[in-house]
Each structure stands twice: as C-alpha cells, then as structure tokens.
C-alpha cells in the first residue's frame, strides 16, 4: 500500500488530486466467513436472518471453491490500524488491504499527500477522527501539496 500511494503522489502534479478506495478494517467485509450471512452496511436492505438448510446447501454447492479459498487465505495479516485478508465478494480468492479510518491520514501523509476528504460506500462524508464507521470501504480524496 505504501508503495502504491507513494507512486500516486509521485505522478500527481503539485496541487493535484489523488482519488482511491480502500476497504474498512472496522467494516462488515473484514473477517467474514463463508458460512455466515453477509453483514449489510447501514442503509442497505438486511439479508435474511436465517438461511434454511436447503438455502445453505444450494449456496455451498453453487461455489464450493469459496470454502477452499477461504481456508487457504484465511490467515489475516494484522498490524496497528491495518490488515490484509480475503474478500467474500470475490469468493475469498482475492486478498486485499483493509485500513481503519483513523489511519487514513497517516497512510496518505507518509506518501506525501494531504488528506482532503473521506466518503463511505454509500457516499456519506466521514470524519476519520470521528466515531468508528461500519462502511464496507472508503473513497479517499487526497491532494499533493503545491510546490513552493
């Protein structure tokens, strides 16, 4: 992540805007399991409370690779304010970076960027220093400082 943000900063003009998205460490996508129902984001319609045995069997048969991928990629690499782990949305085959909202300013700052704004999965403005948010991911707006 640090190398990617540093490269984005390098190629941006002084005063230029850098936009990127990142998954939320405190959101519903982190640390999911294939046998659990998905946790919806606030404002999204809830998933059924309980799956019937038939629904669970159909779901498992639909993509049995999801279980083997989960077991292969389940080891989360956790650090202070960030982690890596597999995503349900990609059948647990894709391992991605997750970050806590309060760490966004540090990550962008270490890359030579100023954090301008953060938005939720649903487009709500988020205060990274505010209360914990449970959005799936963040849309981040950063700016490369003007030369001078």
Give the CA-based shape.
elongated
Any idea what the radius of gyration is?
18 Å
Low-confidence stretches: none
Query: How many DSSP H or I helices?
Result: 4
What is the end-to-end distance?
27 Å
Major sheet details: 6 strands, mixed
Helix content: 10-25%
- Going across the major beta sheet, what is the strand order? 2-3-4-1-6-5
Number of strands: 6
Mean of pLDDT: 84
Order of helices and strands: HEHHEEEHEE
Backbone structural class: alpha+beta
- The portion of residues forming beta strands comes to 15-25%
Outline the secondary-structure elements.
Layout: H1 2-11, E1 17-24, H2 53-62, H3 65-73, E2 77-78, E3 82-86, E4 95-99, H4 104-110, E5 114-119, E6 137-143
Q: Which features would summarize this protein structure in a list?
A:
about 150 residues, alpha+beta, 6-stranded mixed beta sheet, elongated
